[in-house]
Design brief:
By secondary structure, the protein is of the alpha/beta class. The chain contains 11 helices and 7 strands. It has a 7-stranded parallel β-sheet, sandwiched between helices. Helix 4 packs parallel to helix 5 (149-168). The longest helix is centred in the middle third of the chain and has 29 residues, at 100-128. It is globular. Bound molecules: NADP nicotinamide-adenine-dinucleotide phosphate. NADP nicotinamide-adenine-dinucleotide phosphate (NAP) binds next to helix 1, strand 2 and helix 6.
């Protein structure tokens, strides 16, 4: 009799980095439970099935506890071998110009929903004393993000949380890995209304490469991976740069209208 394949949950698998992570899981022999908030998740699932995985899709808002409960139920009590908590989104413009419901949705998706899912699945992993957790943080967590202030704050939280949880689990067989991408060519910037900014129009990293870096780090049980040498350099410099200076640098990349500076520079 064929052994049952292991199960992986991938959130935010309908596009970008999560889509590539889910493909890597499928290629590596996992069955998948994948989630996103719109019907594109069903199209994405077709691609994962072509790679040999049995796929369950969940279309739900992971900013809500109910949405996370729905995703957890979709696993049908099967042991989760890998949790790739990747769903997240940004929000451009000045904080005081942002709609507060939209602000809250960033926090609820990137932090609250992510933590709730990790809490539920993590407890099961602790009972089984086995599991791999990959959390998509960001190098944005190293920089106060003028004109994406809330988003960068959520990623600072997630980067920090990931290392702390890893430490709490160091005497178990559960590993926690933080993937910290730099600017990556996905739907992120359009969704965050950042297409009139320098970072929105600049050349970015390939999501397939970023996902591969994260996936390999997760499989190796590493603590973190900053994808790409330029981003590695940027994060090293950020750790010794005053926050006020970092915020000013971020303004140059993310201020509305800064896209024209990118064109002038190139
Ligand atoms: N792109 C970058 O430059 C970059 C850099 C560093 C870190 N990251 C992080 O990488 C992760 C993936 O983003 P991406 O760049 O691949 O962007 P993306 O192409 O926009 O993908 C985001 C994914 O998350 C899902 N998602 C977002 N909010 C959700 C919610 N409330 N409920 C359910 N699903 C939700 C989206 O599905 P729906 O469309 O259905 O909502 C989509 O599948 C995010 O955590 C992001 O913060 C991105």
């Amino acid at each position: 009799m064929e052994a049952q394949r292991e199960l992986a949950i991938i959130t935010g698998a309908s596009s970008g980095i999560g889509f590539e992570l889910a493909k890597l899981c499928a290629q590596d022999g996992y069955d998948l439970v994948v989630a996103a908030d719109d019907p594109a998740i069903d199209q994405a699932a077709e691609e994962f099935r072509r790679l040999g995985a049995t796929v369950t899709t969940v279309q739900t808002d992971l900013a809500t506890l109910e949405g996370v409960d729905e995703l957890y139920r979709a696993c049908g009590g099967r042991r989760v071998a890998a949790l790739l908590a990747n769903a997240g989104h940004g929000l451009g413009k000045a904080f005081l110009d942002q709609d507060f419901d939209a602000v809250r949705h960033v926090v609820d998706t990137n932090i609250t929903g992510t933590l709730y899912l990790i809490h539920k699945v993590g407890r099961d992993m602790r009972t089984a004393n086995a599991g791999r957790i990959l959390i998509t943080g960001s190098i944005a967590g190293f920089m106060p993000g003028a004109f994406q202030a809330v988003y960068n704050g959520t990623k600072a939280f997630i980067d920090s949380f990931s290392f702390a949880l890893r430490n709490e689990l160091k005497d178990t067989e559960i590993t926690v890995t933080c993937l910290m991408p730099g600017a990556t060519e996905t739907e992120f910037f359009e969704r965050a209304d950042l297409m009139d900014t320098k970072v929105g129009v600049d050349k970015k990293d390939d999501p397939a490469v970023v996902a591969k870096d994260g996936y390999e780090a997760m499989k190796a049980g590493e603590a973190d991976v900053v994808s790409g040498w330029k981003n590695k350099l940027q994060t090293s410099v950020a750790t010794v740069t005053p926050n006020e200076m970092l915020a000013e640098q971020h303004r140059k990349m993310a201020e509305p209208g800064s896209a024209k500076n990118a064109k002038k520079a190139s």
